[in-house]
Write a structure and sequence with these properties.
The complex is a heterodimer. Chain A is mainly β. Chain A is built from two helices and 34 strands. Chain B is 36% helix and 21% strand. Chain B is built from 13 helices and 14 strands. Chain B starts with a helix and ends in a 15-residue tail after the last strand. The N terminus of chain B is likely disordered. The chains are: A mainly beta, B alpha+beta.
């Protein structure tokens, strides 16, 4: 009975007061990777089914984000990869509305696969907040006005991760949440969105990690679930106070998915745990060990859990039982997380090939395999009836 | 023809000499406000409105904004840089041209901040693409790393396109001016192929002679935070207690690696949870600002004349060239450079490297005139980057 009451209080709420079709942050609404958009494209190519294409001034492993009629993208460029770019586009026409550049103030060392534009920005109706792997952080209004800027390495000089950072900022409880797990001064902080000043800042283990916090509401409290190598920690978004830690939920690259009173964590393949106000159940309901994640985070959609990995495998398990429905290998490794909408799952690989699956099918039903011919690491965004894909060179709006 | 040329020159000089439109007080105040932003966003509440004020002034605020950049204030530079972007974007959207002449004068004036000059140069090219060929030769020895890089790449292309019988001297000149590692290595190869002799080690100013001491015990990978006596070493004398209570003393070492690498696994043996030190005596003919740049996959601290200049506590996340930079001043005469290099307890095969390279250079990464190192072979000064025929350490530890 108590569990039932607790479960009733554990309600997922949207992190932002945005329209349902927005894709405001890493993995979109509530970090699920799922959009309620309909009539989305199934087939496209470089020359077919593209609403518009915009050239980009640099690389990026970050995702595009979409709020209203704005698409925001970050890039980095230059011999030292220290030129940081934030761009705003008209989502309908693809017209570049503004382009601002920053000089990276932190180290630019990283694994050659990634770059300084690896963290996905977060947007709301007022504008966009862009964090880079150099620990430069800026807030721009929707028209490109610089609202505020922080050099986090200037503030906390020991910040360092020579593999390259990629955790993405999010918005929660009216604050900008900045994850900064690294080998130096490691922290999670909440900043006010108007001036970018710290509201709270809590220490984190000095370990490198690339995860992004999840947000949920329990009663009147907004919580941040942030995983790292030592476990999954729950913070009060208003104060930064630790509420509980789940040591079995550790991970440093892919991020879990919240789904009501369950959380799917990329541990032991992918595992489903019960979660309530007090924490995560010690033992998983099931663990699908062969559903590996690699860099990409799992997707929960249509009663199934989908994972993609660095070997090119797409795995699908039943969300209720964890039973494997299929595991198939396609061409190319995955870095981008799978996303879904309109009964389809979109799995974009590193070479720019997007395998579109029928989400309802219990078997591996490929609806299309679409090639853009350009490398792509960023998770696509789904909004306004289109799929926004950023490649090494360009931003594509796929759809009508 | 000559008269036309002279008239053009006079006009050009007159244009450059013409005073810029007076900057109004609001712009001046707003620029000062951006420059006053400090740590943790202090000043952001005033900087936001100031940024809007500057951008609202349009094209007349472009040059004053560029002039406000300071090399030593990266936070302000980013506020200013985005304002420059916004002003230029609005001017173009309004169909107005940017002041190419003023941008060119600004770009070529080395008194302005390197980052601002690069921004101005790029804006200039949007108005006048021909400026590239005209200006790049003047940037071969520029303090802006990007302008210098472009200038060197441009000059090399011109040289090779000209297909002259001998370009050895020109290549040597370019090699001396290059700073980026890839360009230095490329040019060294070309100089050597052309019959010249280019020493990458001397160019970069690698320390090739050092006294080493270690391993010190560093439990739980905490070598970075534990102070050991050599932190404040004044010379390579003294005995210390090391790992396993072993008595340690400084031992002379040198490297024959062309990039100045000291492999501590070979020189001191393979040790986990350890710290070691390298001490080098530098001789400077004058007091001079310097950078000590260290490359290592593990945690590093840099001390110059008993003063800690830099530290980075990170293990086995890559080994970026010049990844650790300490800024200090060499005094005239003897200077003691000490680098602490730690090793953690990771057992992964890719986490066993324990090594470092260190170099002494100016703030562009270029050689420092009048600075030498003391050889651990004979105690005499030799140039930085000098590679001995035989290493001072005759026995590698397994």
């Amino acid at each position: 009975m108590n569990r039932f009451i607790l479960a009733a209080f554990v309600t997922l709420t949207p992190t932002l007061s945005l329209t349902a079709s927005d894709w405001p942050q890493f993995r979109g609404p509530n970090a699920t990777g799922v959009s309620n958009e309909e009539n989305l494209p199934t087939e496209w190519s470089k020359t077919k089914g593209i609403a518009w294409k915009a050239e980009l001034p640099g690389r990026g492993a970050s995702s595009p984000v979409v709020v209203g009629n704005r698409v925001y993208v970050t890039c980095s460029s230059g011999t030292r990869d220290d030129r940081l770019h934030v761009l705003g586009f008209d989502a309908t026409t693809g017209k570049q509305l503004w382009h601002r550049q920053l000089q990276g103030t932190g180290g630019t060392a990283c694994h050659p696969k990634t770059c300084m534009a690896a963290n996905t920005p977060v947007a709301d109706e007022t504008g966009v907040y862009a964090l880079f792997a150099t620990a430069d952080l800026a807030a721009f209004d929707a028209d490109g006005t610089l609202r505020w800027y922080r050099s986090l390495v200037g503030d906390y000089p020991t910040i360092t991760n020579a593999v390259g950072m990629a955790s993405s900022p999010i918005l929660a409880a009216g604050r900008l949440i900045v994850p900064m797990d690294n080998a130096g001064e490691s922290f999670l902080a909440a900043l006010d969105t108007k001036y970018g000043k710290n509201v709270w800042k809590v220490d984190r283990p000095r370990e490198i990690s690339w995860t992004t916090p999840l947000v949920r509401t329990v009663g009147s409290t907004t919580e941040l679930l942030f995983s790292g190598p030592k476990g999954l920690t729950n913070y009060d978004a208003a104060t930064g106070e630790t509420r509980w830690t789940f040591k079995g939920g550790g991970g440093s690259v892919p991020v879990g998915v919240l789904d009501g009173d369950s959380i799917y964590l990329p541990v032991g393949g992918v595992s489903k745990f019960k979660i309530d106000a007090k924490g995560v159940a010690e033992k998983p309901e099931w663990a699908a060990r062969d559903a590996k994640s690699g860099y990409a985070s799992p997707l929960v959609y249509a009663g199934k859990v989908f994972t993609t990995d660095g070997q090119g495998f797409i795995s699908c398990v039943d969300a209720k039982t964890g039973k494997e429905l299929y595991k198939e290998r396609v061409k190319g490794a995955f870095s981008a997380s799978p996303v879904a909408a309109d009964g389809k799952v979109y799995c974009l690989n590193e070479t720019g090939i997007c395998t579109v699956l029928d989400a309802k099918a219990d078997a591996f039903e490929v609806l299309a395999s679409n090639e853009l011919g350009e490398g792509s690491l960023g998770t696509p965004a789904i909004a306004n009836g289109r799929i926004f894909i950023r490649t090494e060179k360009a931003l594509y709006a796929v759809g009508r | 023809m000559q008269i036309r040329f002279c008239v053009a020159v006079v006009l050009g000089v007159a244009l450059i000499a013409t005073p810029a439109p007076a900057v109004d007080d609001a712009t001046t105040q707003a620029l000062l406000t951006l420059k006053r932003v400090t740590r943790e966003g202090k000043g952001n509440e005033d900087a936001g409105p100031a940024w809007k004020t500057i951008v609202s002034k349009g094209g007349v605020a472009l040059l004053p904004t560029l002039e406000a950049f300071e090399d030593g204030n990266p936070t302000a530079a980013n506020w200013l840089r985005t304002a420059v972007d916004a002003i230029a974007e609005a001017e173009k959207a309004a169909g107005r041209k940017l002041p190419a002449d003023k941008l060119e004068a600004f770009t070529t004036n080395p008194k302005f901040a390197a980052a601002a000059r690069r921004s101005a140069y790029e804006l200039l090219l949007t108005e006048d693409p021909s400026a590239k060929a005209r200006l790049l030769p003047g940037f071969l020895n520029d303090k802006s790393p990007d302008l210098r890089r472009d200038a060197i790449a441009n000059e090399l292309e011109i040289l090779e396109r000209a297909a002259r019988p001998s370009i050895k001297a020109d290549l040597e000149k370019l090699f001396a001016l290059a700073r980026d590692k890839d360009q230095v290595e490329l040019l060294a190869k070309k100089v050597n192929a052309a019959g010249g002799k280019a020493s990458i080690a001397e160019h970069f100013g690698f320390v090739t002679f050092a006294s080493l001491v270690g391993p010190f015990d560093a439990p739980e990978s905490k070598g970075f935070t534990i102070p050991y006596p050599p932190d404040s070493a004044k010379d390579s004398s003294g005995k210390f207690m090391g790992k396993g209570a072993a008595e340690l003393k400084w031992t002379p070492a040198s490297t024959t690696d062309p990039l100045g690498k000291f492999d501590l696994n070979k020189l001191l043996g393979k040790h986990k949870n350890s710290a070691a030190y390298a001490l080098t005596t530098l001789i400077s003919e004058q007091e001079i600002p310097c950078e000590i740049r260290v490359t290592s996959p593990t945690s590093v601290k840099i001390f110059l004349n008993q003063k800690e200049l830099f530290g980075r506590d990170e293990y086995h996340h890559g080994s970026p060239f010049d990844g650790n930079v300490g800024r200090g001043t060499l005094r005239k005469g003897e200077n003691v450079l000490v680098v602490k290099v730690c090793q953690n307890n990771q057992t992964d095969s890719w986490a066993q490297d324990w090594r470092f390279q260190m170099r002494v250079c100016d703030d562009t990464g270029g050689p420092l005139a009048g600075v030498s190192q003391i050889s651990t072979l004979d105690g005499k000064p030799v140039p930085l980057g000098f590679i001995p025929a035989q290493p001072a350490n005759t026995e590698d530890k397994k």
